[in-house]
Amino acid sequence: MTSSPSDEPEYDLAVIGAGAAGLAGAVTAAELGLSVALLDTAAHPGGQFYRHPAPALGATRPEALHHDWSTFDELRRRLADSDARYLAGHHVWTVVRTEPRRDRWEVHAATGADGNGERPVRVRARAVLLATGAYERQLPFPGWTLPGVVGAGGAQAMLKSGLVLPGRRVVVAGSGPLLLAVAASLATAGARVPAVVEASGYLGYARHPRALAADVHKLAEAAVHGTALLRHRVRLRTRSAVTQVHGADRVEAVTVSRLDRDWRPVPGTGRRIACDALAVGHGLVPQLELATGLGCATRRTQDGTSALDLDADQQTSVPGIWAAGETGGVGGVRLACVEGELAGVAIAARLRERPALTAGGRVRALRRRRDRMRAFAAVMAAAHAPGPGWSRWLDDATDVCRCEEVTAGRIREAVTDYGARDARTVKLLTRAGMGWCQGRMCGTAVACLVGEGQGAQLPPSPERRPLAVPVRLEMLAALAETAARENPPSKAPQPPG
Amino acid sequence: MRNPPDLIVVGAGVVGAACAYYAARAGLTVTVIDRGSVAGGTTGAGEGNLLVSDKEPGPELELALFSAELWRELAEVLPPRIEYEAKGGLVVASDGQAMAALRDFAARQAQHGVSTETVPGERLRELEPHLAPDLMGGVHYPQDAQVQPALAAAHLLRAAGDRLQLRLGEEVTAILTGPSGEVRGVRTSTGELHAPYVVNAAGSWGGELARLAGVELPVLPRRGFVLVTEPLPRVVRRKVYAADYVADVASDSAALQTSAVVEGTPAGPVLIGASRERVGFDRSLSVEALRRLAGQAVRLFPVLATVRALRTYAGFRPYLPDHLPAIGPDPRRPGLLHACGHEGAGIGLAPATGRIIAESLTDGQLPLDIAPFRPDRFGGGEAR
């Protein structure tokens, strides 16, 4: 089966995202008897974490770059054995209520985006599970647009899916636990990693011994990465940041500076490190477009991002819309699996009116594990939260929005001289965030620069992006007409009286 | 501390900015208060249409023609970053019946000062090379223009100079009145500010502000979606729309209506908008509105079929029951003036509105008869 009809039958549950959380949710719900559609943009399941080479690359051991590969194998097998309908290559651009009876959900996707046969697909369902994951947070600095600067997560994705390295001598920088994993992967795959540059200290963790002790797996993981780094003689510099990239056409070196507690560079501490690539990232940001489009409530996480506000059963503030994994706050693959399963059970209990499903020992145990891992994730987020002084890295000439080439100076001017008080108004006045990435790349930076002028906090809620992905106009035009709320407009202007 | 201003303008959208600009130019000191940012409401969700083409002869057309002149003057004074473009509009008809109605409509507009030029079908593509080939004809309106609304508002405020004080992120919670009911100033989240005049430029929320002053002004929101494409080289030169748009603008129906106005922007994206429907302050996405906007745009410009929409946004156009704005002093509450309810035409009508407000405050010569815009024309809600 290669094609899907443009109008799918109605399902009990539509799961969006076939990473760990979505897979776990879909197979759990299907095994409990729900009809399930699982939509994902990629050609094969796995999401970001279980990203693996296309079969054509002939990788003999894709699991070599992954821990927990057996969990993924198991989820894939259960998916194949289930009745869940897996819709690969489906780019979901919005989820709305059905009209005029607002008791169902309509998931709108585009398929065939890679070729010419782009078509609209509409999936109707009684419940929706959002498992849309996260994307990497970038904080700009002078030189960050130079070729050879890649996202840390991007570098790992390149390695996992194509087995390619971003360079031969790669500095890994930014903040967050992902950096250690990325550096270990790069070193194992043969790159020299002269330094891992981490902006926070690791002391933040020590303040929460109980949360740490409760997640033994995470500690073991860190130990594994640590050992790999030692073996490859990779140096970890904490409380430091790459504050400048050097090179004419591509990266030749970086300057690493010490940071004070607020992440302000300490003058005179800059040291140059030669390299031909820089993999940089500042943690992950939950991908919430579909959720905020539906009006789901969000909460601020410890590291200044927004995540969905969820109840004990993984339901959002909008009844019928559920979420699992990074959408509820970045917490890693094992948490995603637990939350996916919890959501699957809870949705089945709700739709089949079988509350007993969520009363068993398994669900109690899952909830305990989730709460433990969430507590750990909160400690981690707090430890790596960007300090307020990071924007001092930026000179006024640094491009902050790369799509529209808007500099830090223009953004500061919009705030101080033209009355912008939030990222949205900065966007209207400067075009920062209006380009292809729709602010995913520069959103954090713009919000921080706005705050710089008035000592304000980041905005309480993320910006709404009603189109989660770009959509061709002909595809929008080809959507089935909705019978609701309409009067055909008259053909000609109405001469008055 | 500064002295109290002569005038408080509530609302830092384009209408409030224009009121502040013309008042300051007339020598008054002005404080503009907004609970959000500059251009944070309807102004930031607009397309920047400065249209005369869609208006039938009557008071709104007079206002629009006067405003079009003022925009031309402002374009000389304000920096080019406001992206003012005197690009002209092109209204097209798909069949003979629509063309006949359009020609008739244009003829009546022409009697009231609108420049119009009928364009036969075969000449349409000289004006717009990418238009669909099968259209019956159209009317070219050289007075239609475009501006980037948020930048226009920001630069109007800046051009007001030292006489203006801007207070953002501050919400007006009460209108202060004196012993005989006259306006004395406002109370905000941070304290009281005194002034003998308060201008209601609160846009979609103008009805609420009027209520704070104890008067009724039935401003209602009308939701509009705009689709924004990826950046393109100039494929659309003017503001192009189908003749149906005129009927939609004047409509009283609550149902969803769309007739896409398609236009390019200096930054590259093509804007397609806007739908109109009365659903209260509901921002949830209407897939049906997008379907129609996209369909109509592609029918006009087939080349847009494979172009991607990057985003869409909804805004609320404030309107009054007779689809005319409320402009000028409110006889029910001395010292209160209104400048709101411009529906989808606020960007275009802002300068004329600002001039009227400034002239009313300085006993100057009113540029046109403002009786049709009287804020108390709907009756009810007398000052207590």
TrEMBL record, chain A:
Pfam families: Fer2_BFD (PF04324), Pyr_redox_2 (PF07992). CDD domains: GlpA-like_Fer2_BFD-like. Keywords: Oxidoreductase. Residues 11-326 form the FAD/NAD(P)-binding domain. Residues 400-448 form the BFD-like [2Fe-2S]-binding domain. The keyword Oxidoreductase applies. This is Oxidase. The lineage of its organism: Bacteria, Bacillati, Actinomycetota, Actinomycetes, Kitasatosporales.
TrEMBL record, chain B:
Keywords: Membrane, Oxidoreductase, Transmembrane, Transmembrane helix. The keyword DNA repair does not apply. The chain crosses the membrane at residues 7-24. Coiled coil: none annotated. Residues 6-359 form the FAD dependent oxidoreductase domain. Gene3D superfamilies: D-Amino Acid Oxidase, subunit A, domain 2, FAD/NAD(P)-binding domain. PANTHER family: FAD-DEPENDENT OXIDOREDUCTASE DOMAIN-CONTAINING PROTEIN 1, SARCOSINE DEHYDROGENASE-RELATED. This is Oxidoreductase. It comes from Streptomyces albospinus.
